[in-house]
Amino acid sequence: MNAENPIWALISTFALMSLFAVGGAAAAVPEMHRIAVDVHHWMTDKQFTDAYAIAQLSPGPNVLIVTLIGYAVAGIPGALAATLAMCLPTALVAYYVGRLLNRPSQSRWPGLIQAALVPLSIGLMAASALILAQATDRTIAAVLLTAMVAVLAAVSRINPLWLLLAGGLMGFAGIV
Amino acid sequence: MSTDSAPAAQEPDRAAAGGPPPSLAALFVAFARMSLAGFGGVLVFARRAIVEQHRWMTADEFNETFALCHFLPGPNIVNLSMVFGARLRGIAGGIAAFAGLLLPPTLIMTVLAIVYARFGDVEVLRRILAGISCAAVGLLIAVVFRMMTPLLKRMDAVALILMLGVFLAIGVLRLPLQAVLLVAIPVSVGATFFLRRKVAA
Asked: Which residues make Cβ contacts (< 8 Å) with residue A171, sequence separation at least 6?
């Protein structure tokens, strides 16, 4: 079905994915990678990591990597369709649940479920990091740059934007 | 990566956010501004704007709403915009905040996509993007590390095993997300439930 109408494939893929994306956008990256690169061959590995980098560097929620995937598949309509499919269904779910549980702190279930989801989100995000690193860190210099940024960002409160720009500069200089 | 910085839990509770609710245009503009300010995560800016600058909600109300959005599926900050807008101005407010959060960055991203499609193969741009990608992966690793720290400190064996299991299933074996979560979520919720009951008993 995706061969005939790519827009529909985008909408069904991302709407379904968003409903399972517990833990936010970073946790959904492995699934996006699997679908866009391995299943549908919408993008190459390289294009996917480029899209991730662009989404990190630009303002706005990081989930907007789907805008770039959508554009790669079907141009501007694809970009808009992918963005709305990823964002609107869960926002509506949130709206209804928010009205239902006006005071979520009174029940212990939200807290319990949230605590139970924490290790799963971390595992998912670690998987994202591994998949992206395998695609992007192909030289020793690249691995070192990634490691340096990881350490700096973990121990200091430096604005991530500076680290991204420093990476861009090192790429420009041909170091990585 | 907006999940790493949960809002600070305690802050002197202001007199319940008073004043008339903001207009739809004000909601749209406020969310557009926090979205465009939010490089690498919007949550910090959202909290600052809603609680401190506009005083549309108290710190407690913000935390409760955030907790709700965190355990729901989907991009947290997008859910947050809808729920916040709706609490202040009903469904129209939710849509105004949602559109404010997403419209401007989506337009920027579309322009970047066009630029990338046209010039993505230019050698200089390739190199710059390669460098940025390396740094972006480093940032993600740092977030994972920060989130893991409390689990390591508590030596929470069950959580660490679940985390490792999900990492291996998705990152190494590349299994589909739905299948993994269908197993992992019930196991994790069940384990958390029994562990808490044991502590309480």
From this structure: B127, B128, B129, B130, B131, B132, B134
Q: What's this model's pTM, rounded to 2 decimal places?
A: 0.79
Q: Nearest residue on chain B to A52, judged by CA atoms?
A: B133
Answer whether B181 sits within 8 Å of A129, measured CB to CB: no
Closest CA to A123 of B181, B6, B5: B181
Retrieve residue B84's tokens: 């916040």
Q: Calculate the alpha carbon distances from A155 to A101, A150, B142 in Å.
A: 38, 9, 9
> Where exactly are the structural domains of chain B?
24-119, 121-149, 156-201
How many Å apart are CA B82 and CA B43, to the nearest integer?
14
The answer to whether residues B42 and B78 touch, using CB atoms and an 8 Å cutoff, is: no
Start-to-end C-alpha separation, chain B: 37
Residues 27-56 of B with CB under 8 A from A: 35-42
Q: What is the pLDDT of residues B37-60, one digit of tens each?
A: 776 567 777 888 888 888 888 888
Residue B1: C-alpha distances to residues A23, A49, B92, B149, B184 (Å): 10, 16, 28, 17, 22
| DSSP H or E stretch at residue A27 | helix A25-33
Please write the tens of the pLDDT for every residue from A86-125.
Answer: 999 999 998 988 887 665 555 677 677 767 877 888 898 8
